[in-house]
Automatic annotation (TrEMBL):
Residues 47-528 form the UDENN domain. PANTHER family: DENN DOMAIN-CONTAINING PROTEIN 5B, PINSTRIPE, ISOFORM A. SMART domains: DENN, RUN, uDENN. One of its GO terms (cellular component) is membrane. Pfam families: DENN, PLAT, RUN, uDENN. Residues 635-743 form the PLAT domain. Residues 470-631, 807-958 form the RUN domain. It is found in: Membrane. GO terms for molecular function: guanyl-nucleotide exchange factor activity; small GTPase binding. Belongs to the RAB6IP1 family. Gene3D superfamilies: 1.20.58.900, 3.30.450.200, 3.40.50.11500, PLAT/LH2 domain (2.60.60.20). This is DENN/MADD domain containing 5B.
Length: 963
């Protein structure tokens, strides 16, 4: 749909352009209308079934109508389309009656959409007049005699039941339908209806009107102007005056078709459903016995669209001869007349329509995304099959030729004439539609990759820098919509509101029927094993399409099939299995053939392969589109603790515990059973995992524990995080820590090749460990501090959804804490004194002890008030950390002091106090960076750059600290 245009072309000033008479041509006689004689009905399985009427009684058959007269011959700005007017004046051709049948006049309207999108309106008054031609009466008599003879010879045939009524020219009067029509540029329905009714009354009146009928026709065509904007117009009809009104510039557009009638016919709920499908640009077919009701509802829907316009195929009354329009692979809004006497009580409508048997109207709106259309005769079936087969097996040159022709249709594809959509053109258009879906898939996947890879991808020529600002969630939602449209294309019968989920359910049923254990159909994916890991590793996670479906089906939070399909897409994308899963889904060709027509996108082998290849490219980047959206679901997690066997006890006699934290919360402290290094637990979605707290109570004889790392896996998404440790947990070893906070890194799946690794998004950083304390020179240390601070600043300048974990930047590898540790270790006299390792926290502890003692004896009285407050704050923070009930060890305490000092903007103020303490002379060499005033001032100015940002610390870092 598109918005209305203010700069539309000027409308011609005449009220009406043509007066047309359609009916029987006595010179050509009776010509059976094979196409208009087709009956169309909806079967209970939602197929459109068409049938002939040649075995019906001749009075029930349809015959070709002709345009008998029109005036004027042609209007320059609105050329007369004889075929279209004839078909729409009498959509089912001529019909005959006798004096025993009802012959009430009927009124209906129609629309002809031109190639430029403008619309011409037609208003038709159909009545029955007596047939005076002996040749026509004789021909009808002959048809009846032939029909009766056939019925006699096949008395047992069920088709005899369709013969109702009879005709005998000697005793019966024969009547035939005739149509009076006005063609106008604007939909003045009530005025045209009154004029045509008066015209008919004048034709059958015993007394002639005051003026010849031609005078009244001339008057309305040439002398009655269009009403001025915002004004009413009153003109003379034949017997009574007629009034019409045209809205002004500031008013709503002209809507002469009553909206109240549209609501009455469908009901509010059904009309809202139809309107929703219109906004979604679906294929909509309106179904009724009455032509005018089709027009009323169709115009009502398009009126409600204001200020938007329906830009696709719009045929409120579809002539029977153009039923092949329903095969068009484009959005449309059409109306189809139903057969008289249809029993709608047995009609099962799809889920899109909530059928209300209690509705007062006989109007039924059937909403389908695709239609199955059976051919009308054996010959037509054969011809169409041949045409489609020829097109689908074209060589590349001819295919390209047809594609060029389809492209050249341009506006006609969006606003086609009634004669445009032949079966051949539909086939050509379908190839364009398939090509468009493939092109859209290529563009969307490229855009998603560029958004993820950022400027590095731009430098490689893969896009523009402006694309990097697009929100990931919007792009993924757009991909979900594209996949639904691909799976909706060429469906035999739509079942449910999601074509993709319906296909998945069919696949699931087929798998269950073929094996008792569907999960065994797919080989398991094993996680990558690192050389440093011991023999205890994360067990393999069996992954299959069916298993991922079961995860989605178990989520009670998702209520609809569309929601389940989108969740399954997000989960598959996050697991980097979307292309693989869809390839597996389409591998069952028999199922695909059963569900989809030959021309469907999913049955075009070359396009399907390219489509899967484009989706495969998304494996180059990491998505958390499932984890970040379904934040309230319960997820099973698996934890494996990997000790360093060759250096320590693999097990411990103490009581170990673990707490897993993520961006959305933490699991709480969970006790690990003794002598067990693996456990599972269920927890509400933690989001991306950030930290693991690991500790024990130091009980038993073997309380010391040297842990290499902790592995945690989300059992639904398969994401596995490694939390390196490489340090002791126990009293009297290392820094005496019984608890460590480990920082996680996402483990690469073993299936990723080198190219994917080279262009994937940066990995998360690691936990701090003693192994990182490589001796660096002063320049390297200063560079590391600057880089750590810059990373934090860049973190806050990113959009919130793209920031990642601040904990990693504060405490991970190459983080602020790690850089400051290098700074404090430079020139540090860390030789073993009395067989005991000295830590930076020992220096801080002695410095604080000096400050507290100096304050008590009055040595700080000479200092400024600001210096006193800074000194008191350092002592307060030190004592709060040192007295915590947590056994986090000396390195853990120093990390906490740095994090709290950065959060509360105190760190730059504490550094001069530490330098001024005499204890620095005992614990640091003269060449230490901490004792260089110039270097210290530089460090202070760098740290002060963090004061512009509000740093929030993760709960796992500050747990038990009341500051």
């Amino acid at each position: 749909m598109s918005g209305t245009s203010a700069g539309s072309a000027a409308v011609p000033c005449r009220f009406a352009h043509y007066f047309v008479i359609c009916g029987i041509d006595t010179e050509t006689g009776l010509e059976p209308d094979e196409l208009a004689g087709i009956g169309a009905e909806l079967s209970t399985d939602h197929h459109l079934v068409v049938s002939e009427n040649f075995e019906q009684s001749p009075l029930k058959r349809t015959f070709k109508s002709k345009v008998l007269a029109r005036y004027p011959e042609n209007v320059e700005w609105n050329p007369f389309d004889q075929d279209a007017v004839n078909m729409l004046c009498m959509p089912k051709g001529l019909s005959f009656r006798t004096q025993a049948d009802q012959r009430e006049p009927q009124f209906h309207s129609f629309i002809i959409t031109k190639e430029d999108g403008s619309r011409t309106y037609g208003f038709v008054h159909t009545f029955y007049e007596e047939v005076t031609s002996p040749q026509i009466c004789s021909a009808m008599q002959t048809l009846y005699q032939m029909h009766n003879a056939e019925q006699t010879n096949a008395a047992s045939s069920s088709s005899s039941s369709s013969s109702t009524g009879s005709y005998d020219s000697s005793r019966d009067t024969l009547y035939v339908s005739k149509a009076l029509c006005l063609i106008t540029p604007m939909p003045f329905m009530h005025a045209c209806r009154r004029f045509l009714a008066q015209m008919h009354s004048a034709v059958i009146a015993a007394t002639a009107p005051p003026l010849p009928l031609e005078s009244y026709v001339y008057n309305i065509l040439y002398e009655v102007p269009l009403p001025a904007l915002g004004r009413s117009l009153k003109f003379h009809g034949i017997y009574e005056p007629i009034v019409c009104q045209r809205p002004g510039p500031g008013e709503l557009p002209l809507a002469d078709f009553p909206l109240a009638e549209a609501f009455s016919l469908l009901g509010v709920e059904n009309l809202v459903q139809v309107f929703t499908c219109t906004l979604l640009e679906m294929q909509i077919l309106l179904y009724s016995q009455d032509y005018q009701r089709l027009m009323t509802v169709a115009e009502g829907i398009t009126t409600l669209l204001f200020p938007f316009q329906w830009q696709h195929v719009y045929v409120p009354i579809l002539p029977a001869s153009l039923l092949h329009f329903l095969d068009a692979p484009v959005p449309y809004l059409m109306g189809l007349q139903s057969k008289e006497g249809t029993d709608r009580s047995k009609l099962e409508l799809p889920q899109e329509v909530q059928h209300q048997p209690g509705l007062r109207s006989i109007f039924t709106a059937c909403l389908f995304c695709r239609w199955c259309h059976k051919a009308t005769t054996a010959q037509r079936r054969k011809d169409r099959h041949r045409q489609q087969t020829e097109h689908l097996t074209l060589d590349n040159d001819l295919k390209e030729k047809y594609m060029q022709e389809a492209r050249s249709l341009g506006k006609n594809l969006r606003q086609p004439k009634l004669s445009d959509l032949s079966p051949a053109v539909i086939a050509q258009t379908n190839w364009k539609f398939v090509e468009g879906l493939l092109k859209e898939c290529r563009m969307k996947t490229k855009r998603m990759l560029v958004e993820k890879m950022g400027r590095e991808a731009v430098e490689l020529g893969h896009g523009e820098a402006s694309i990097t600002g697009l929100e990931e969630n919007t792009l993924i939602a757009s991909l979900c919509d594209l996949l639904e449209r691909i799976w909706s294309h060429g469906l035999q019968v739509k079942q449910g509101k999601s074509a993709l989920w319906s296909h998945l359910l069919h696949y699931q049923s087929h798998v269950k029927a073929s094996t008792k254990n569907p999960s065994l159909l797919v080989a398991p994916r094993f996680l990558e094993r690192r050389k440093s890991d011991s023999s205890i590793a994360m067990p393999s996670l069996r992954v299959s399409l069916i298993q991922d479906m079961r995860h989605i089906q178990s989520m009670s939070e998702i209520k609809t099939d569309v929601g389940r399909a989108r969740a399954w897409i997000r989960l598959s994308l996050e697991k980097k299995l979307l292309s693989q899963h869809l390839k597996q889904l389409l591998s069952r060709q028999a199922l695909t053939k059963k569900l989809y027509k030959r021309y469907a996108f999913l049955r075009c082998e070359e396009e399907k392969e390219q489509f899967l290849f484009h989706l495969l490219s998304l494996n180059a980047v990491d998505y958390f589109c499932f984890t970040s959206v379904f934040t309230t679901i319960m997820i099973p997690y698996r934890v494996v603790i990997i000790p360093i066997k060759k250096l320590s006890n693999a097990m411990t006699t103490s009581n170990p515990w673990v707490c897993v934290s993520g961006e959305l919360g933490d699991s709480g402290i969970m006790q690990i059973p003794k002598n067990v290094l693996e456990m599972t637990f269920d927890c509400q979605n933690l989001g991306k995992l950030t930290t693991v707290q690991l500790g024990h109570d130091n009980a038993g004889l073997l309380a010391k524990w040297l842990v290499d790392c902790v592995m945690v896996r989300n059992e639904i998404t398969g994401h596995t995080y490694r939390f390196p440790c490489g340090r002791w947990l126990g009293k009297g070893v290392d820094d005496g820590s019984l608890e460590r906070v480990l920082i996680g890194e996402l483990v690469l799946p073993s299936g990723e090749d080198d190219s994917a690794r080279a262009c994937r998004t940066p990995p998360l950083q690691r936990s701090p460990s003693q192994g990182r304390r490589i001796k660096l020179n002063s320049a390297q240390i200063q560079e590391g501090i600057g880089e750590a601070v810059n990373n934090i600043i860049k973190h806050f300048h990113k959009p919130e959804k793209e920031r990642g974990s601040l904990t990693v930047l504060l405490c991970g590898e190459n983080s602020l804490v790690a850089a400051l540790e290098q700074f404090f270790h430079h020139g540090f006299k860390s030789a073993r004194l009395f067989q005991k390792t000295v830590f930076v926290w020992d220096f801080v502890e002695k410095a604080v002890a000096y400050m507290e003692s100096a304050d008590q004896v009055g040595d700080l009285q000479e200092t400024t008030e600001a210096m006193k407050m800074t000194c008191q704050s350092l002592c307060h923070y030190f004592n709060a950390i040192n007295s915590t009930s947590r056994n986090i060890g000396k390195d853990g305490k120093f990390q906490l002091l740095v994090c709290l000092g950065a959060r509360d903007r105190l760190l730059p103020q504490w550094l001069p106090l530490l330098v001024e303490c005499p204890v620095i002379l005992q614990m640091y060499e003269d060449t230490a960076m901490l004792r260089d005033p110039s270097t210290l001032n530089t460090l202070i100015s760098v740290l002060e750059a963090l004061h512009d940002f509000s740093i929030t610390l993760e709960a796992s870092l500050v747990k038990g600290i009341n500051l």
